[in-house]
TrEMBL record:
<feature type="domain" description="Lactate/malate dehydrogenase C-terminal">
    <location>
        <begin position="179"/>
        <end position="345"/>
    </location>
</feature>
<protein>
    <recommendedName>
        <fullName>Malate dehydrogenase, mitochondrial</fullName>
        <ecNumber>1.1.1.37</ecNumber>
    </recommendedName>
</protein>
<dbReference type="GO" id="GO:0019752">
    <property type="term" value="P:carboxylic acid metabolic process"/>
</dbReference>
<keyword id="KW-0560">Oxidoreductase</keyword>
<feature type="domain" description="Lactate/malate dehydrogenase N-terminal">
    <location>
        <begin position="35"/>
        <end position="177"/>
    </location>
</feature>
<dbReference type="InterPro" id="IPR015955">
    <property type="entry name" value="Lactate_DH/Glyco_Ohase_4_C"/>
</dbReference>
<dbReference type="InterPro" id="IPR001236">
    <property type="entry name" value="Lactate/malate_DH_N"/>
</dbReference>
<dbReference type="InterPro" id="IPR022383">
    <property type="entry name" value="Lactate/malate_DH_C"/>
</dbReference>
<dbReference type="InterPro" id="IPR001557">
    <property type="entry name" value="L-lactate/malate_DH"/>
</dbReference>
<dbReference type="Pfam" id="PF00056">
    <property type="entry name" value="Ldh_1_N"/>
</dbReference>
<feature type="active site" description="Proton acceptor">
    <location>
        <position position="209"/>
    </location>
</feature>
<feature type="binding site">
    <location>
        <position position="65"/>
    </location>
    <ligand>
        <name>NAD(+)</name>
    </ligand>
</feature>
<keyword id="KW-0520">NAD</keyword>
<dbReference type="GO" id="GO:0005739">
    <property type="term" value="C:mitochondrion"/>
</dbReference>
<dbReference type="GO" id="GO:0030060">
    <property type="term" value="F:L-malate dehydrogenase (NAD+) activity"/>
</dbReference>
<keyword id="KW-0816">Tricarboxylic acid cycle</keyword>
<dbReference type="GO" id="GO:0006099">
    <property type="term" value="P:tricarboxylic acid cycle"/>
</dbReference>
Length: 368
């Protein structure tokens, strides 16, 4: 009798284990991503929020701003009949509630680059806002993935990293500079010059995220294309100067490129939410801390990244030809300067490396 029972158990056990393992796997990857957009009232922030409200992967969208208009934006977005829930938060006293429990925190908006403006000037204008958000994120949600659209990401990503290190919660996987717009522009200009559908073109970007540091890797364009050197030089120029070229078309000097930038951010965040949900083939380009041997060349740079549930899973440097290597070497001078600007702001003597008060926990929640 014992042997017959054992035989039954042996037959049932594989089935039970298979079911249990499948159930456990689903439990691990079935989550409800929460995304926070900081500076949601900015032109870029509004457009990002509009696009993310339509994402099938986002369970809850939190909008934060110091402007009371954030309540109106949230109410307007809530009328879009998608499953994503929208909540709004106004003022410094509720930034903790906006940030905590978010899987992804996006710092958007801020002062955008004007033609001829230096990275140092732009950093000085935006650093306080990004640093304040980083302090709250490090204190109340260090496991959230902190994504930066606000320029210059080449300085702000290292600055946020240093702030996290001071707080003792640094995880390089969770601090990302979004650079998707550069790849989008490269795809556009390549399609324009060589023909074909732009939606079928994929161009890796390396280096940085500015007019002097963005390097398109034409030799690795997919589908493979034989682009003459003279054409690559022209496309490279168009990619780097695209922002200035568009801004010159606007009569209002305060205008910024908010539409295509927002699409780039939304695409990246959608890719990241899919990775959080357990998809394994989530690849993009972004400005991040390098993990491999390339870190000896530049500790931070734009490269191909594979996304995972905790942020950056791995970084990859595509093969580059001699012309692209020359451009990257030139770009590295500016990138390294910008990295030092961000790091020294926290750890060295820079613009104003003052001690700031630790975020208070005694705050009131206001939601809509």
């Amino acid at each position: 009798m014992f042997s017959s029972k054992l035989s039954v158990v042996n037959k049932i056990l594989p089935f039970v284990l298979r079911k249990c393992c499948t159930f456990t796997h689903k439990q691990v990857f079935t989550t409800h991503p929460v995304v926070t957009v900081l500076n949601a009232c900015s032109n870029i922030g509004r457009n990002i929020s509009l696009l993310l409200k339509q994402s099938p992967h986002i369970h809850e969208l939190k909008l934060y701003d110091v402007n009371k208009e954030v309540f109106n934006i949230a109410e307007d977005l809530s009328h879009i009949d998608t499953r994503t829930q929208v909540k709004s938060f106004k003022g410094n006293h509720v930034i903790r509630q906006a940030i905590e429990d978010a899987d992804i925190i996006i710092h958007a908006g801020g002062c955008q680059r004007k033609p001829g403006e230096t990275s140092a000037k732009l950093f000085e204008q935006n650093v306080d806002s990004v640093r304040a958000a980083a302090l709250y994120a490090a204190e109340f949600n260090p496991k959230g993935i902190f994504c930066i659209q606000t320029p210059p990401v080449e300085s702000l990503v290292p600055m946020v990293s240093e702030e996290y290190k001071k707080a003792g919660v640094y995880d390089a996987r969770k601090i990302i500079g979004i650079t998707s717009i550069s790849s989008m522009r490269a795809n556009h200009f390549i399609a324009k010059y060589i023909g074909g559908s732009v939606s079928d073109i994929l161009t890796p970007i390396v280096g940085g995220h500015g007019p002097l540091s963005t390097v398109a890797v034409f030799s690795q364009v997919r589908p493979q294309a034989n682009i003459p050197q003279s054409t690559t030089q022209l496309i490279q120029r168009n990619i780097c100067e695209a922002e200035d070229d568009i801004l010159k078309l606007f009569k209002d000097p305060s205008s910024c490129i908010s539409l295509s930038t927002a699409v780039g951010v939304a695409r990246f965040v959608n890719n990241l939410t899919k990775a959080i949900l357990g998809e394994t083939n989530c690849v993009d380009c972004a400005f991040v801390r390098q993990m491999g041997h390339i870190a000896n060349f530049l500790p931070y740079m734009t490269s191909i990244i594979r996304l995972g549930r905790h942020g950056v899973l791995s970084t990859h440097m595509p093969k580059i030809n001699d012309q692209e290597a020359y451009r990257l070497k030139k770009a590295s001078i500016f990138i390294r300067t910008n990295i030092h600007l961000g790091e020294n702001f926290i750890s060295g003597s820079s613009l104003k490396n003052e001690e700031v008060a630790k975020p208070t926990e005694n705050i009131e929640s206001v939601k809509q």
